Amino acid sequence: MGKPCWMLLWLGVAFLAAGVLLAGCGGRLPAASPVDEPVSGARTSSPVAAAASQATAAATQSATGAGLLGRGINLGNALEAPREGEWGLVLEEGFFDVIAEAGFDSVRVPIRWHAYADAAPPYALSEDILQRVDWVVAQALARDLRVVINVHHYQALIDDPAGQRERFLAIWQQIAERYASADERLFFEVLNEPNGALDGALWNRMLREAIDTIRESNPTRWVVVGPGSWNNYRALEALTLPEDDRRLIVTFHYYDPFHFTHQGAEWTDGSEAWMGTRWEGTARQMREIQGAFDQVARWAVAHDRPVYLGEFGAYSKADMASRARWTAQVVREAEARGFAWAYWEFAAGFGAYDPVARRWRPELLGALMPADAP
Ligand code: GLC
User: Fold this and answer.
1) Which residue has the higher pLDDT, 252 or 37?
2) Residue 271's closest CA among 220, 233, 334, 316?
3) pLDDT per residue over 25-81, tens digit each?
4) What is the whole-number distance in angstroms between the Cα of residue 192 and the centre of ligand 1?
5) Which atom of ligand 1 is nearest to 265's Cα?
6) Beta-strand runs (E) in 52-155
7) Of 32, 196, 219, 351, which has the highest C-beta tally within 10 A?
């Protein structure tokens, strides 16, 4: 059968399947599935990635977030610090072992690139940071972990988008050229949590320019992009993407209820007063997550984009039982919609792993990787 026939066929199947699933899920939207799986080699994808791919293979030809990045964890507080180690964490080879052994599919690596870029043109990145990131990427790939590298904490850009525009694009040009021939299991993420002055139309323009810069050397690499307002799902409607670029994954971050997840967070004004806020998993609390994720799923289907919940987590000052309940529920609701996810984060203030005792916190690992998961 020629291509047009196939297209008509899958369009028809997709339409029917979407209708059936919608009817059966109380308005929830189906996950999509990758036909052009980006991961090469003999990788057996995780149960969740495989299930998301197979269950809905007939529904659409598009990739799902779950199929692309599966279950992940953020290597936060290391390369996002002003210098690695200043926030108490230096990445170690063994971390990649424990993450892979626990069954994760991917890692997200927040990086403060601008701290290693000259202030004046051509804004050269230091060879030190490039070699360190080479090492991180190699460690992840050697264990078959897909790896997302982003630009994190670029506050000067957020405060002065026009003044930092050229430098931001130069940073991306250098990163993109460095990894132009890297394994396709390496993903780029344009900018963590744009907000403030860098939002709305201005963010859409800057994002477009960054994508164009990346595409000059990486025409087919998967690139993670997110909305303004700190990657809040409510800002998705304002996000505009180049229609013809089908290698974009849309990310959002989820920390609601914020007074629960950020209680006692030293970097959040007023958060001392939220101490003691619990998350019991009441029907209303569950509906809050479901409503938010349904909104994301509807947007994703309407725009035919895979979704990556790139950050979610509850700070260690909340009680562990509430953290575990909330984390498990967020994971469940994300997976039900075919979203990939990455817990915030591995071994610091939200840590699922205790770097001193050198073991996972069982409640959090159990929430992320339930034994009865597919
Ligand atoms: C954002 C910040 C990070 C913080 C996290 C949780 O990713 O960049 O520093 O720890 O959100 O608040």
Assistant:
1) 252
2) 316
3) 322 222 333 323 433 333 334 444 444 444 443 344 478 999 999 999 999 999 999
4) 9
5) 12
6) 71-74, 106-109, 146-150
7) 32
